[in-house]
Each structure stands twice: as structure tokens, then as C-alpha cells.
């Protein structure tokens, strides 16, 4: 369905439109280099590459990687899109099927993916939820819908909901490294560094050479080790009023509030 037939993934080290992807900040993807996911797509094959409103889409047989740039974070989402020259036509067909009530779960997903690429996140969320509600296909394919929904939530600031979708995706498909990468990035944004570290370590269990997860794992491991042993902040009462104090620690370490 959504992103791979022969597990021929878009490498995280390749360039999109001549611009290298930053490994340090790259995240939120649906197909990563060396993924062990065994999803079996069922939609039409795609062949070419095009750029739409600054969103680079790389097309291969049943593989489409779309990047969303937001701040310093690069979100990579692999989704099935229509041929560039016929995208408007296909979108109109999907929308008409939705209006008539004849849209399948796959068509809801494809329309949601189009809305996601266009950054119409509320619409993307709506269609992806409908795809999940109507789903009658393989659970491994369904994991991709949850992953895309997670990205849509996070892009609209609903970080907790996004995390829930990524966790659902990896529960359905434990070897889904791109959802693990997304989960790690979401936890890092939430400043839950131990959980982020665990997610990136899961990626490397399935794909030891994953170029997105390895530098993130290394940086987080160093950070978690540095903050280990920092005392819990406690509230202390004084004559001057309430204030927060830290117990004295012989090892000076930076604190994050």
C-alpha cells in the first residue's frame, strides 16, 4: 500500500533537489534506509520525481518520500501519491468518491496523504482517521496510516496525540523503523530524553546502520548520561516565600528546566 514493494527505500543520505538532508535534524519519516518493514503495498506504481510548493517528492515503484521542512527538523513521509501530471485529476476523483460515500480506506489514506503534503493538516487528519475507521486490509499496511496520522498531529502541535499514533504503528509493526524514528523525535521534542533514546535504540536493533537514528542515539546517550544522578527539584518554604531549591551535589552538571 503506502511505501514499499521491494523495500527499496529512499536513502537518508541522498539529496533531495540537490540539497543534502541533514542527518542530525532529519526525522519523522515513513521509509528509512535499510528498513526491515515487510509491508506489501497495493496501490499504483510511481516513477518520477517532482517538486510541489517546496515539498520534494521522490517517486519509485510504489514508493514516495515527501519531505516537510519545519524549523531545523526535516520530516520525511513515504506515502502513495498520484503521478505529478495527474495529481489534480486524482485528487478530484478521490474527493468525489469521498462525497459520494464510495471511497475505500485506501482512497481515504491517499487523499489524506495529499492533504498532508499540501500542509492542510486538519483535512489530512480527518481523512486519515476515516481510513483507519474503514480499514479492512492488512494490519502491517495500517501501521503506515497511523504513522502518517502521527505526523499530522505533531505538525499541528498535538505532540501527545502524535506520540500515541507512532506507538500504535510500532506495536502493529515492530520492525517499522521509520515510525520508531518519528517516535524518538517526538519524545525528544517533548524533552523525554530517555524515551527518545530508547526509540532510537530500537531503530538500530532493526537497522544498525540507520543514518538518521545513529547520531541522534549517540547525542541522546551522552545527554542522558550527563544528567544521570541530578537530584529531583524540591519545593522549600522560607520566610521570604516559596522557592525551588536543589540539594547539593558534588558533581556539577547543567540543569534543564
Automatic annotation (TrEMBL):
Gene3D superfamilies: Tetratricopeptide repeat domain (1.25.40.10). TPR repeats lie at residues 143-176, 177-210. It comes from the Eukaryota. InterPro entries: TPR-like_helical_dom_sf, TPR_rpt. SUPFAM superfamilies: TPR-like (SSF48452). Pfam families: TPR_1 (PF00515), TPR_8 (PF13181). Keywords: TPR repeat. This is Uncharacterized protein. It comes from Cannabis sativa (Hemp). The lineage of its organism: Eukaryota, Viridiplantae, Streptophyta, Embryophyta, Tracheophyta.
